[in-house]
Amino acid sequence: MPEVGEFVIIKITKIMPHGAYCRLSEYNMDAYLPISEVSSGWIKNIHEFVKEGQQDVAKVIFVDREKRSVDVSLKKATSKNKKDKINEYSLEKHAEGIFNKAVEASGAADRRAQLAIDVSEYSKTYMDLVNDIFEGRDPLSGFKDNAFKEALYSIVAKTIKPKIYTVAYNVELTTSDTRSGIGTIKEAFGNVEKEGIVVQYLGAPRYRLVATDSSYLKAEERIKKANKILEGYKGIDFSMKSGKVQA
Questions:
Q1: Does some domain include residue 92?
Q2: What is the count of structural domains for the chain?
Q3: Beta bridge mates, 200
Q4: Nearest-angstrom CA–CA distance, 189 and 172
Q5: 32, 40, 159: which is closest to 99 by C-alpha?
Q6: Which H or E run contains 4?
Q7: pLDDT, tens digit, for every residue of 164-177?
Q8: Could you report the per-residue pLDDT of 106-145, keeping only the tens digit for each?
Q9: 141 plus 204 within the same structural domain
Q10: Helix, strand, coil fractions of the chain, as percent rounded to 5
Q11: Which of 61, 93, 151, 181 reaches 20 to 30 Å from 221, CA-CA?
């Protein structure tokens, strides 16, 4: 059952004069939406605010485990809460799809329900399971069904691609040394490139420094190292302008 304060995906199934019944998609159970929790302010006609079949995100405000009774609120779920929950739900469904592919690939379709129960003893959610595998951990260490485990790990490796962050800074670089200034600039940029940074020539005196990594912070750290390298060269004047981040 859900916890009080948790955000859940709901589907309105029946509308009454003083509230609505809804289905909790993630828990396979019903919940009640009091009319006072539909929207802020006075509601004359509940049908003006909710429709049967409507799907939304609500906040759990009451749970009675003995009676398996749950009340939810729409007005206590902000637009950000809803966006975050929908994203989380989509990721979980995607991870569940990976689990189902592994079940089929390992020839265990007739044991799907039991495998789901067995896996739940190792990981709270499908997304946690997939993330742990993707990050190189072994969340199913000791799992008895090796065929399923091997299929799952293989599918995760083929399906989940690492996110790459690109941080780019524009640099204006000049030198007052007419004799060896050009050579100094080439040497400085050569050392910058050793940090894994791509130097793009935009037309003197403008350049672009581009760093990529699986972490934004790591990519930004490379740019900082480039800044220190350029600062270490005498006779070079430069300025960095705001960076651009792409994922």
A1: yes
A2: 3
A3: 208
A4: 13
A5: 159
A6: none
A7: 888 888 888 887 77
A8: 999 999 999 999 999 999 899 999 999 988 899 999 999 9
A9: no
A10: 40, 30, 30
A11: 181
